[in-house]
Amino acid sequence: MGVDEKILRSKFNSDDLVKINELLAISEGDGLESETLNQAYVLEGSVRNTGIHACGVIITPDDITKFVPVALAKDSDMYCTQFDNSVVESAGLLKMDFLGLKTLTLIKDTVKIVKAKHGIELDPENFPLDDEKTYELFQRGETIGVFQYESPGMQKHMRALKPTVFADLIAMNALYRPGPMEYIPSFIAVKTWNRGNRVRLGGL
What φ, ψ does residue 36 adopt, rounded to 5°? Predict the structure, then answer.
């Protein structure tokens, strides 16, 4: 028994070992299965896309380039690490999350202004999630100042989607990021089709 086999036996049960040996036999073959398996082995663990944490900040005792490889963020001259947060932390660097939303300040100031000018006490915690006029703003893409919905791309998708329920906003927020972004047209198409059929069926 070789060293490698001893290591395998210490980590896997007999059923797993049978499957491992089957995969090894396939990988050493010449057919399409072998080629597919070996290509998958090359791709396994590869980085599919990169992204920047909304509020993650790496703190270093000296110039960051002395500790980790860096790259420029997309459409920006800001440096970001090429390692993810877990690797950076294992390298001994400090990662802190500082999420400051100007939107929260705007909401707070707006509540004060409305109370001072109109004598109306607003409670943002109790704003209804089914307000039609609010959805009309989203449908027109008038979302400047709305966190994660104010970019030109998101405004375009809002105008195409014409959201009517809170779930629409949740779904678009989840889709509008690298990877799932390609499914946005399909999501909008399904929403449009459903809306059209409800109209034809008398709202049922």
Answer: -65, -45
Cα(89)–Cα(56) distance, rounded to whole angstroms? Answer: 12
Q: What is the pLDDT along the chain (204 residues), one digit of tens a residue?
A: 334 666 667 777 778 888 888 888 888 888 898 889 888 888 887 777 667 776 778 888 888 888 888 888 777 777 888 777 677 777 778 888 776 677 888 889 999 999 999 999 999 989 999 999 999 999 999 998 888 899 999 999 999 999 999 999 999 999 999 889 999 999 999 998 887 666 454 444
pTM here is: 0.52
Helix (H, G, I), strand (E, B) or coil at 182: helix
In this structure, the chain runs to a length of 204
In a domain, 165, yes or no: yes
Contact criterion met (CB below 8 Å) for 52 and 97: no
Instruction: Give domain status of residue 169, yes or no.
Output: yes
Same domain for 34 and 67: no
Alpha helix (H) residue ranges in the chain: 3-11, 14-27, 32-43, 85-90, 102-118, 132-139, 152-161, 166-175, 184-200
Residues 6 or more apart whose CB falls under 8 angstroms from that of 180 comprise: 174
Instruction: Note down the domain range covering 14.
Output: 3-43
